[in-house]
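Q: What structure does this chain adopt?
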Amino acid sequence: MPKRDATTPRLTAVVLPELDEGAFDGRGRFDGLRFVDLDGRGAQLDGVGVDECLFERVALDDARLDGARIADSVLDGVTATALRAARATLRDVRIEGCRIGAAEWFEATLSRVDVVGCRIDYLGLSDATLEDVRFTDCTIGDLDLRGATVRRTALVGSTVRELSVHGARLDALDLRGADLDVIDRAGRSPARSCRPTSCRASHRCSRKPSASASGERGEDPAGMPRRLI
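A:
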């Protein structure tokens, strides 16, 4: 039996069953529903459970999903100026063609999550756990992984202006397909941080910072291995 690749994200396609029409009606759980062309701006969905659902062209400006549990679901064409999902859990989720200003997802858990063709100005995943996560053809302004635990995560054909990894535990972060401007290991707070103090001194990257990882703009981070950091 061939040995499994220890670095490639292990993803499975999300296959949805026949769905019923859904609405943001204040219930605490959504199962087998489709939300299409709906206005969910300002929705308070803290702690909601979502299983086998489709969110398509839904506006979620300033919505909150703190502690939400989302599984076996698809977000397609969702838009939001700000979308907060602190301590949320996403498992077997596909996120495609979404446009988000600030995604504040600190301390979230992402497992088998496929992010495709999305534009996110600020993706805050400080102190989060990512395992088997792939970003494909995405444009991300600031990717904040400070204090995060990252396993089998890859950026493919994606552009990231600034990647912050101070205090992160990185196990197979594949950057071969990423266009990176800055890798910040020094712990400088991103301009739009969702949490000003998220790093812990006990969590350190194993590699020494290179010149390109110290915050100098305009340099290709050639000193960083393109495969793993």
